[in-house]
Design goal:
A nine-stranded mixed beta sheet has the order 16-15-14-13-12-11-24-25-26, with no helix packed on it. Strands 17-18-19-20-21-22-23 form a seven-stranded mixed beta sheet. A five-stranded mixed β-barrel has the order 3-5-6-8-7. Residues 69-74 have low confidence and may be disordered. It is globular. The chain is an alpha+beta fold. Helices cover 51% and strands 17% of the residues. It has four domains: 2-113, no CATH class; 116-226, OB fold (Dihydrolipoamide Acetyltransferase, E2P), CATH 2.40.50; 232-375 and 434-493, no CATH class; 556-811, Ribonuclease Z/Hydroxyacylglutathione hydrolase-like (Metallo-beta-lactamase, Chain A, 4-Layer Sandwich).
């Protein structure tokens, strides 16, 4: 029972931290801590206690009467005497740590919200500090996390105000190019301090230990880190990075740095997307495997030098600490580093512990230091994967006796880790591709050689260049194997498990994994009836999935709810599949396609170069075979942005042909006909040239029609009417998310029965506008909004239009024929 005590306590503390948003309304942090300490005292009081040892006469049976001597002779040996059933003490201990976790999280939140920087905002300030993260590019500039050490109000009337020493973290963001600084460097930043009080971004910052944003007007690098250990790690990192880049091509160097240090800044975006799509992304995050590869040779050296136990502990602990600093102390490497430290401490004290207890101890230590680590996805996945391997890998390997031992261990480890992280992935990303298991098993033999040979080449190259170059040639083989594997497996026609990502999926998945672990570790066999039933259910599932994956009986259009953006999938009875736009989220559209069982796309349309229409397309191109990409070809300033350049590189990287249709062109995609109504030219000097350059498509299947109006504004809409383009359609994708930029005669010319507005809430644009909604109502269609109804699916049949939605009542519009 004691072997489960530490995991129980760590799990309870984790649950307590998560419960703080609920607990704080009833108890507050002080009340939760008092309750936790009271329950802990109850647990200790109800736990076992030693029976008083008998005296010499009693032990010899010489005291008391004959009956007493007989009782003493048959009495059990002195030992623990429980004051209550064992379950009561365990329950009290668990509840006590739930309350302590909630109270501790409350104190942590109060400290963050009471930051001195919080009291200064909003104000113009000069802040000195060191970068906690590398500056990273974003959609509108760059951002980083800064650990501030001093702050001074930037007041014109008091230019000489002294600096005030602080020890707080803040979110740093700026416009323009990235500052020439890396993690650990000291910066002096002048800018405006803002307090983020509420909203999703405020919650995100709070969970990072941050309550304020510094909008940088000027950022100047003062110098390297003042910490000698961090400075040494910076120097080692720079030397390693320089040698890796000298020995390998840019693509291989970026992947090697990702494998070794979790540094993805130089990683090829295509490789990053392929690794993410195949479930190999964890290889690019430093984990316990990296720590083990560093620690093993260090301990081997310690044994060769015949160091004492203390010497081995100091050398190993120092190596782990340096590696943690070198890799940036990300949550996954922190977990692995603390586990390594606890294991070394146990060996030093001669009291080694099980891996499960070490994991639980590491989790508890880290949550005491920073309780909001529970909200870090990297930490969640790292802990879950390690727990899965501890609980499942051994029993699974034992049941894979038909495989060679190394392959059985690799397969069992992959299956165990994947089973444990799948509930989290389904909750956060809504998708777990089956290709993940195959890809991880195939990648397993190449990871260690790629990492070790690559680092050996870089290390030797610093001392003797020719030998380093030779090792680099050898290391390039497994590195390129991983690149090709991820590339090929990313678009493998294997299904995915998808979900809506709600709490029941997470809790149900965790319960299923726990039940699987119990069954495997119990060594029990499945009853024959259960085995037969499972095979029947699996057969039924595969059969029903195959039916759903087939082409529909009529034209079907899925308008995806992707927030403030556009994405729509068209499927035809002949099996044609067409995606129009990809929305603003990098992953969401690809996940929705997987949920529908899509295996390929005949064409992808990027209507125009605004972020809310194409950001999701690189992931789609990486994961699905695509026949052709259609875009306007108009190169406006927006096409020079980094995200759009990456989209164009993705098209080139995946080898997809790119075409630029114009007004009057007609394309046939399977049994679908696409008539392009706009643009007739690349617009210049209008209110929004990119919007007016947008592709407008009249899609028809036999007598059925959909007008994808996308985002033309009044200039382009008038041109279509003047050119006498056919606009009549049964379904209208309303232009520009319902903005007040449409021309009433254009809307009146469509005569649609259903109008779908792809829009997100909240949005700062006021979409859809009341004026546009009024104009639509005058034309008489049924109006459906994705922000209110979720995904909207329109199915055409001889009986009429059947409209299905996620959250709104369905519609059935009878055919006028």
């Amino acid at each position: 029972m004691t072997g489960w005590l530490l995991p129980l306590v760590a799990s309870a503390f984790w649950a307590g931290v998560l419960s703080w948003p609920v607990v704080h309304r009833a108890l507050g942090s002080a009340g939760a801590l008092v309750m936790g300490l009271g329950l802990l005292a109850t647990a200790v009081a109800t736990a076992s206690t030693e029976r008083p040892r008998p005296g010499v006469l009693e032990a010899a049976g010489l005291a008391g009467g004959r009956r007493d001597r007989v009782a003493a002779a048959v009495a059990p040996e002195p030992g623990p005497v429980p004051r209550a059933p064992p379950g009561v003490a365990l329950l009290a201990a668990a509840l006590s740590f739930v309350a302590l976790g909630a109270g501790w999280a409350g104190l942590h939140e109060e400290r963050i919200r009471g930051s001195p920087l919080n009291r200064l905002g909003p104000a113009w300030v000069v802040v000195e500090g060191s970068l906690d993260t590398d500056p990273s590019p974003g959609r509108f500039g760059w951002s980083a996390e800064l650990r501030a050490s001093a702050v001074q109000r930037n007041l014109p009337e008091a230019p000489g105000e002294p600096h005030r020493a602080i020890h707080e973290r803040l979110w740093l963001e700026g416009s323009g190019s990235l500052p020439r600084a890396r993690r650990g460097d000291r910066l002096e930043v002048t800018g405006r301090l803002l307090v983020q009080d509420d909203g999703d971004f405020a919650t995100f910052l709070l969970h990072r230990g941050i309550s304020v944003i510094l909008e940088a007007d000027r950022a100047r690098r003062v110098g390297p880190s003042a910490n000698l250990l961090v400075r040494a790690a910076q120097a080692a990192r720079a030397s390693l990075l320089g040698e890796v880049r000298a020995l390998f091509g840019a693509r291989e160097a970026g992947l090697l740095m990702g494998l070794a240090l979790g540094d993805t800044l130089g990683l090829d975006p295509g490789d990053e997307e392929h690794f993410r799509a195949t479930g190999l992304g964890h290889l690019l995050a430093v984990s316990g495997e990296n720590v083990a590869m560093v620690l093993a040779p260090i301990l081997g050296l310690a044994l060769l030098l015949r160091l004492s136990a203390v010497g081995r502990f100091l050398l190993g602990g120092g190596a782990v600490l340096f590696f943690v600093v070198l890799t940036g102390a990300e949550p996954s490497v922190l977990r692995a580093g603390v586990m390594a430290g606890l294991a070394l401490a146990g060996a030093l004290l001669g009291r080694p512990r099980s891996t499960g207890s070490i994991l639980a101890g590491a989790v508890l230590v880290l949550l005491v230091v920073d309780p909001f680590l529970v909200y870090s996805l990297g930490f969640q996945l790292s802990v879950a994967a390690t727990a899965g391997i501890v609980a499942l890998a051994g029993p699974l390997a034992a049941r894979l006796r038909f495989l060679p031992r190394p392959l059985a261990i690799a397969t069992a480890t992959t299956l165990a880790a994947q089973a444990a992280v799948s509930p989290i992935l389904l909750d956060q990303f809504h998708q777990v591709p089956w290709v993940t298991i195959v890809a991880n098993v195939l990648a397993f033999p190449a990871v260690a050689p790629a990492l070790l040979l690559g680092l050996a080449a870089a290390g030797v190259g610093l001392l003797f260049g020719p030998v380093g170059a030779l090792l680099a040639l050898v290391a390039a083989v497994p590195i390129r194997y991983l690149e090709v594997l991820a590339d090929q497996m990313a678009s493998a026609p294997l299904p995915s498990v998808t979900s809506k990502g709600d709490l029941p999926v997470l809790l149900g998945g965790m319960a299923a994994v726990a039940a699987l672990a119990w069954w495997l570790r119990s060594g029990r066999r499945l009853p024959r009836s259960a085995l037969v039933g499972g095979i029947l259910v699996l057969t039924l599932f595969v059969w029903s999935t195959a039916l759903r994956a087939g082409p529909p009986s009529g034209l079907v259009v899925h308008f995806f709810d992707v927030g403030q953006g556009d994405a729509a999938l068209v499927r035809s009875p002949g099996g044609a599949t067409l995606l129009i736009d990809g929305g603003p989220d990098p992953e969401l559209t690809a996940t929705k396609l997987a949920a529908l069982g899509i295996k390929r796309l005949d064409a992808v349309v990027a209507t125009h170069p605004h972020l809310d229409h194409f950001v999701g397309l690189p992931a789609v191109l990486a994961r699905y075979p695509v026949g052709v990409v259609l875009d306007s070809g108009c190169r406006v300033p927006e096409t020079r942005s980094a995200p759009y350049r990456e989209f164009l590189r993705a098209v080139e990287r995946e080898g997809v042909p790119e075409k630029h249709p114009r007004e009057g062109d007609t394309w046939t995609v399977g049994d679908l006909t696409l008539r392009f109504l706009s643009p007739d030219r690349c617009w210049h000097g209008t209110n929004s040239d990119p919007n007016n350059d947008s592709l407008v498509i009249l899609l028809t299947y036999r007598e059925d029609s959909v007008l994808f109006a996308n985002e033309p504004e009044m200039d382009a809409q008038k041109a279509m009417l003047e050119n006498h383009e056919p606009l009549t359609a049964q379904v209208l994708n309303v232009p520009h998310h319902g903005a007040d930029t449409s021309w009433l005669p254009f809307l009146q010319a469509v005569h649609e029965e259903v109008a779908v507005i792809s829009v997100g809430q909240p949005n700062s644009y006021g979409h859809p506008t009341p004026h546009l909604l009024h104009e639509l109502r005058t034309t008489g269609p049924a109006i459906l909004r994705t922000d209110r109804c979720g995904d909207v699916t329109v199915a055409f049949s001889s009986a009429g239009l059947a409209v299905d939605t996620e959250r709104c009542p369905g519609l059935l519009l009878q055919s006028s024929g």
